[in-house]
Input
Amino acid sequence: MFSSFMVNTWIVASIVAATAGLVGFFVVVRGSSFAAHALPLSTFPGAAAAAWLGINEIAGLVIFALLGVIGIDALSRRGRPEVATALTLVLLLGLGTLFLSQTAEYSQEVYGLLFGQILGIGARDIAPIAVVCALAAGAIVLLFRPLLLGSVSRELAQARGAAPGRLDLAFLIILAMASAVALPVVGALLVFSLMVGPASAARNLTDRPGLALGLSVMLSLIIGWAAIALSYVTNWPVGFFVGGFGAVAYALGRSGLRFGVVGSVRA
Output
């Protein structure tokens, strides 16, 4: 489990999980769960295009994540945000189908990108993933207060000098970056679980934003580490364990809230 070929996996999974916990907190408090589900799927065609063109996979994922953000932002100005997100998703998935049809050596990679894989992380992937995660985490720290105010009330954020439209776009970009780098580890179908599960549990445990943010990161790291360990032992997809543990964390948070176990934390 801690052999030399697993070191890259542990490093990347820790970076990705911490970033997902950080960004996931705002996914929950801003009610952006659909975007958090759609953007990883929108980045999936980027990996297909990268394989077809022979370029770096992470670059393809990030480019398509940003294309997804541009599509959602542009279409949201002319209609409802959830409709714009859905239209962008189906358009990019259509492109992904086209790219996949152009290569015959991609079936194993497709499976890994959909469900996650623990042995597919190379040393050359660590630096770009670390840079993208650092940018996303730095943006969250820099915009923490405006994002939090905008989550409570767009009018309040605007009264304090923030532009809600720009905040929405900035958060979509942050979400896209975090989704793109998490996809090779967790899989496109379950990036959403790593972001929403721990953050939802943390949000149920406390109303204090700073503490909830810290709990979200801690739970995301624990889930990520446990998922990798069990995936290594059982040879089951890492995404399966991430999704299961995310649901358990949320259920425990709701149970603690219901029975008053977390009252002291909220106080």
Observations:
- The chain is about 85% helix and 0% strand.
